[in-house]
Amino acid sequence: MKKNKIYPQWFIVLPLLLYILFFLLPAFMGVGYSFTDWNSRSVLKGVHFVGLDNYKEIFTSNKDYLSGIGNTLMFTVISNIVKIIPALLIAILLQEGIRGKGLYRTILYLPSILPFVIIGLIFKSILNYNNGLLNVILETLHLGFLKQKWLSDLGVVWKSIMGVDAWRGIGYVMTIFLAGLNTIPKSYYEAAQIDGANFWQRLRYVTLPMLSGSIMINLVFGITYGLKVFDIIYVLTNGGPGHATEVMTTYAFQLYSKGQYGMSTALNTILLLITAVVGVLIVRVMGKQEVQQ
Q: How confident is the model at residue 287 (pLDDT cuts 50, 70, 90)?
């Protein structure tokens, strides 16, 4: 029986070595360096063990590192809400067989294949207060009272970031939902209609339970993306105004740019721990759902 295996077990050796060399080893080294004073002057002075000093600095200093952690978690939660719910409704609408649905799918999906940097630069121009396209259109339509400093006003800057992120990501989330919808037998909906179920009842008792796998996939991808978000915020606001839109990755990038490598790796280690905890929770939830099904 063993001789008939398509792939020998030793095929896994090379990928495993590459994984250890380029992922696990740097990760463990990073965690180790987070307990040191590693910086740009370490070439002359050497690297010294400082224990939990870097972590104390992050959690007790007045440099808003905690707000960066809070912003990261807030962005992760809200970005998933503003993408998953609209994407689900759009996917259901397109699945109903409206005319030109193939074109709509293409148009909605296209933004998700564009690079974050390109999207950020385009929207940074569109949302410019003085001569940005959005404010110019509002002025042209005599709606100047709606003009905003979209990327510099504390009251609207996060809304602008969430809007741009949703514009890019809804199409991708929608595609995963469409794949899930295509696996639901039409007989389930026919039976529900015979029983007199309306749209919302069919959504609650047929669609959502059958889409639990697609919902979980989108949550896993969305949470992972939200915790590691960098490009869109860095290009749009660079963490501003002030430090209002800083997240953990932008803070880590700034610290590394200043030569504070130990502090940067400490912040990244905290991000790693948060991601690991969330990942374990997601796996447990998925495991329970599989058992129930």
A: low
- Report, as an integer, the average pLDDT of 226-252: 92
**Residues 158-194 pLDDT 10s:** 999 999 999 999 999 999 999 999 998 888 888 988 8
Nearest-angstrom CA–CA distance, 249 and 35:
19
The pTM assigned to this predicted structure is: 0.88
Mean pLDDT (the chain, rounded):
89
Spatial contact of 263 and 58, defined as CB atoms under 8 Å apart:
yes
Give me the pLDDT at residue 5, please: 61
CB 164 within 8 A of CB 232: yes
Could you tell me the two tokens for 62? 């007045």
- Torsion 7-11-16-18 (CA) sign: negative
Give the domain ranges of the chain.
51-292
- How does residue 291 score in pLDDT terms, banded at 50, 70 and 90? low
| Residue given tokens 């180790």 in the structure block | 32
* CATH class, 51-292 region: mainly alpha
Amino acid at 260: Q
HEC string for the chain: CHHHCCCCHHHHHHHHHHHHHHHHHHHHHHHHHCCECCCCCHHHHCCCECCCHHHHHHHHCCCCHHHHHHHHHHHHHHHHHHHHHHHHHHHHHHHCCCCCHHHHHHHHHHHHHCCHHHHHHHHHHHCCCCCCHHHHHHHHCCCHHHCCCCCCCCCCHHHHHHHHHHHHHHHHHHHHHHHHHCCCCHHHHHHHHHCCCCHHHHHHHHHHHHCHHHHHHHHHHHHHHHHCCCHHHHHHCCCCCCCCCCCHHHHHHHHHHCCCHHHHHHHHHHHHHHHHHHHHHHHHHHHHHHHHC
- Structure token pair of residue 144: 């100047």
